[in-house]
Amino acid sequence: RAMKLARQQTKPMMIDFYADWCIPCKELDKFTFTDPLVIEKSRNFIMVKADLTQSGGQTIKGRI
Length: 64
Description:
Number of helices: 3
CATH class: Alpha Beta
Low-confidence stretches: none
Oligomer: single chain
Number of domains: 1
Structural class: alpha+beta
Shape: flat
C-alpha cells in the first residue's frame, strides 16, 4: 500500500483524485504530469492516483 511505502521511504504522499469525466483531470495528465520538471520533483513523493469515477470517494480510504 502507498501509505506503508511512504512511511518506509519517509516521503510524503501526493494523491491525484480523478474521474473519467473530469476535464481538468485529463489536462493534468496530459500537460502537468508529463512535464520533465514535474516528473523530476515527483520523485520526492509517493504518487497515488485515486479513481473516483464510480465510487464517489466512498471506497478510496481502503485502497490507499
